[in-house]
Structures are given as C-alpha cells and as structure tokens.
Amino acid sequence: MGTRRKTAAKKTARKKGVTKKAPRKKSTAKTTRSKKTVRARRSTAAKPLERRVHATDEETIEQITSTARGVHQTIRKGNRPDLSLPVRALSNVSYDGRGGYLEIGRQKKTRTLSVNTVKNFAQTLKMMALSKDLVQENDFATKREAYYISKNWEETKFDEQIESDTVMDDIEALFSVHAINREQLRFYPEEHGGSVSGPLVVSDRDATGRVARIDCANFGSGAYSIPASVEDLEFETSADFVLLVETAGMFQRLQSHRFWESSNCILVEMKGVPARAVRRFVRRLADEARLPVYVFVDCDPYGIANIYRTLKVGSGSSAHINKFFCVPSARFLGVTPQDIVDYELPTHPLKEVDIKRARDALKNDPFFKSHLQWRKALEQLIKMGVRAEQQALAMWGLNYVIEEYLPAKLEQPDRFLP
Q: pTM score, two decimals?
C-alpha cells in the first residue's frame, strides 16, 4: 500500500481504540476519475447471452403434455418408454470461455420403465402432472409442499424430500432445452431470495395482475426482498454498477450508511451462495440495464470457489441452466489474498477442508483452470495458510470499509480478478 498518512479512517479507528495506522486512502483527484471509469464500464458491459429464460405457460403445458403423451403411446404399442436426461455433474461440464459459463456436456442418462425403475418413473410423471395443474391454476408449490403433496400418491409417495427435489431437478433438466426451468414448472424454493437497496425501481405484479412499483431506495432501515420468480419484473435505474455482498452483517452496514447513495450503486445481499432468484435478478440487471457487477465476499476458498464461482459461471449440478442463471460479466472486487497483505488484516488459519477445496478448484474446476490470475490467487492463499473475513476491515474502524476500502477499490475496477 506504500507509505501511510493520517486519514479520517485512522481517526475513526482511534476512536474505537485502534492505535495502529490504517492503510491510507487515495487522493480526491483519483476518486473523481474513478467515478468516470465506473460509468464508462457501464457501456462496455458484456453483451447479453439470453434475454428470456422461460417459455410461456402455454408452452410449458404443451411440453409436459407432449412428453406424457409420448410415454402413453409407447406403452400402447407394447414397448417400454424411457426419458433421456442430461447428466448433471461436474464430470459432464466444460467451461465455455466465450459464453462465460459452465456448459452441460453431451452425456445422457436414460430412465427406462422397468420393474426396478417403476416407482421412480411413476414419481416423475406424477410430479409432471402436479406441475401442469399448478401452471393451469396459476399457483405454485414450495419444494417442501410438493414433498408433502406426494404423501397422497400411495405407493409412489416420496420417503424423503431429497428424493422429490431430485425428481424436480430431473424434470427441469428434461425440459431445459425448451427454455423451461423449475420456476416455470411452479416449484419454488423455501429460502429467502436476498435483499436489495439503492437507486432501483422494480415493477412487479401480484396474483391479480395489479402492478406495484417498488422503490428500493425507500425502505428505511430495511430492504427489498427478491421474490422467488423474477422473470416478469421490470427495472428502472440510474445506478452505475451492482455490488453484491456475501454477509448479512456487511450488507446491513452498507445499507444503513447509504453507501449505495454515495457510490450510486445497487447493493445486493447474497447470504452465502446466492439463491437462483438472486443470480437471475442480477443477471437481468447486468444484461438489460447494462450494469457492471462487482462481488465482495470473504477471502477464503468457500467464498471464492463456491459463492463467487457459482454466481459468475454457475455450478456442475445446474449446468443445464447456467447460461440463464449466472452472471459472466461479474468481477471479483475482494477480499483478495493480496488484500490480507496490503491491509494487514487479522486472519484465521485455513482448515483442512479449506485447503482441500482450494486444491480441488485448482485441479478440477474448469473456470479456475482457465484463468491464470485465479490460479495465482488461490496458490497464494494456500501458501499463506490463512483466511480473512469481510468484517476484518473493522480493525481499522467500523466504517473503514465505507470510507476507505471500497472507494479505493472502486477507483481501479480493471484490476479486479476475473
């Protein structure tokens, strides 16, 4: 970080009982240039890969009906029906550098009706029938509710929710070629989608079709919650970029101090590995509002190889929908391994599971294998043998992250990790 001088952040740190000098803030002149740089990057954001993720309700119903009709006709002819599904595993995934996401391969698994597969085959058809009913009735079921609905299916009921979740994912993979995803099948997750603050107006419709305009800058101490299905939302924004934040605590600090106002950005809370709705919401902002996307997470193998990687390029298990549910234009703002050195952050030792995760990413993950900068960063982290949290920046003062760290970082977005 070079020589250090007294700053407002240093004074803040002293008030909190910190006696060590904090890394310095850069000059005001450079800060002014950084504002222009961020705005300039808005016009050069990655081109949209796919503007629409879903088929219409009518198309969804037709695909379900057509598949069921094919099974029925095959049985009527005295043959055994089958369903051909893509293999959803990292072994059947490659990194599409041009598209910027993990892409499903050509390996298929065929589920043929037999004595051994009759229950699972029937469960698949029953789940498809449930989906068809939900679409026709303009309703939805949570994944947990779908599991309990199956208790009325007699011999074909699911014993554990993991079984019904797997069948849902298989059906989604089956129909993904027709741009039908789990949300269009009307199966929603239980988890909270994530929170949003900043200069963004979201237009949404309720079940009656009434339009609501939601101003994400006017939630007081709270924030807008991303719904389970985001495809029909409409956006209005004057923001310069989107900043995704891993932890609820850090998001709350940035939100309560209105960091989005001083930096003219949209803040999005991820809560760890971002839910599908969060990833799709941010992807649509990146594509349609032409906004750069920056990611701020803990510096550890999980934050890098799970949270960030999933947001940017997707995952092996979801490779059939990654092209819609990831954000290839995202860049890694921090916390980086080099930040630990430059900002003299307090750390924790890497656990064995952390080291294993980092080495596995270097050896097996197509995304990290394709980027020399990331290989160097992960190797540096392993060599250092430590990890650091976002909140470690509080060493220099509670608001150091707002007054010093993020402004300094945002001056040089071209130096962010890919």
A: 0.79
User: Could you say which of 95, 148, 308, 405 is catalytic?
Assistant: 148
Contact 304, 375 (CB under 8 A): no
User: Could you tell me the CATH number of the domain that includes residue 251?
Assistant: 3.40.1360.10
Q: Are 174 and 85 in contact (CB under 8 A)?
A: yes
Cα 69 from chain centroid?
36
Classify residue 196: in a domain, yes or no. no
Residues 158 and 62 in one domain: yes
Q: What tens digit of pLDDT does each residue of 19-48 get? A: 455 665 443 333 333 333 333 333 333 344
Cβ(13)–Cβ(401) below 8 Å: no
**Structural domain includes residue 101:** yes
We report the CATH number of the domain holding residue 110 as 1.10.10.10
Show which of 126, 160, 188 is a domain's final residue.
Answer: 188
**Beta strand extents in 127-271 (DSSP E only):** 141-142, 187-188, 195-197, 200-205, 211-215, 224-225, 234-237, 241-245, 265-269
Q: In whole angstroms, what is the distance from residue 191 CA to residue 328 CA? A: 24
385 and 264 together in one domain: yes
Cβ-proximal residues to 139 (8 Å cutoff; 6+ apart), any chain: 186
As a whole number of angstroms, the distance between CA 89 and CA 284 comes to 26
Is residue 216 a part of any domain in this protein? no
| Crossing angle for the helix pair 118-136 and 161-175, to the nearest 10 degrees | 70
158 lies in the same domain as 307: no
The predicted structure's pLDDT at residue 40: 33
Q: On the CB side of 8, how many CA atoms lie within 13 Å of its CA?
A: 10
pLDDT at 49: 44
Tally of domains within the chain:
2
Question: What SS3 class is residue 203?
Answer: strand
Residue 125 lies in a domain: yes
Reply yes or no on whether 302 is catalytic.
no
| 298 and 362 housed in the same domain | yes
Give the C-alpha separation, 254 to 394, whole Å: 13
- Structural domain of 350: 8-44+241-415
Say if residues 280 and 321 touch (Cβ distance below 8 Å).
no
